[in-house]
Write a structure and sequence with these properties.
Elements lengths: L9 E5 L10 H9 E7 L3 H12 L5 E4 L9 H21 L3 E6 L8 H12 L5 E4 L4
Parallel strand pairs: 1-4, 1-5, 2-3, 2-4
Helix pairs in contact: 3-4
Length: about 140
């Protein structure tokens, strides 16, 4: 028996504290169903794994925004944070399919970018944003 669920406009998922190995099945399902995966991970092993995972999916685009963590220039970092928050919102508004954003750790704990996507998406953009933690 196949289980289906209504997909949100944006899924914001956490990778857990142990790289990418703690993503639960529900989050993996959302990644597999995504039209676009936006990675905000800063762990090279996780970035590489996710890029390979997305490459194996048909009709799934992958965007890596990990460069945000490599610059010490405040203007570059400000622009990167702006992109990491606005990109999922803009992409979700312009697409029919699921946009999934994945960040490190727990998406609702001490994570300004992922909580901003949820708050702005629901409050100002009228999007259905689902936040899924991983196992920590």
């Amino acid at each position: 028996m196949e289980v289906t669920q209504d997909l949100p406009d944006i899924a914001v998922i956490g990778s857990g504290i142990n790289r990418i190995h703690q993503i639960p099945r529900e989050s993996m399902y959302l990644l597999q169903e995504s039209e676009l995966i936006i990675s905000a991970l800063n762990e090279p092993v996780a970035v590489e794994y996710l890029a390979e995972f997305a490459d194996g999916l048909e009709d799934t685009e992958y965007i890596d925004l990990s460069y945000i963590y490599t610059s010490h220039d405040n203007e570059v970092r400000f622009n990167a944070y702006h992109e990491i928050i606005m990109r999922p919102l803009e992409e979700a508004k312009s697409r029919d399919g699921l946009v999934t954003m994945i960040g490190g750790g727990h998406p609702a704990r001490w994570n300004f970018t992922t909580t901003s996507v949820k708050r702005l998406g629901e409050t100002y953009w009228g999007l259905d944003v689902e936040m899924l933690p991983s196992i920590s």
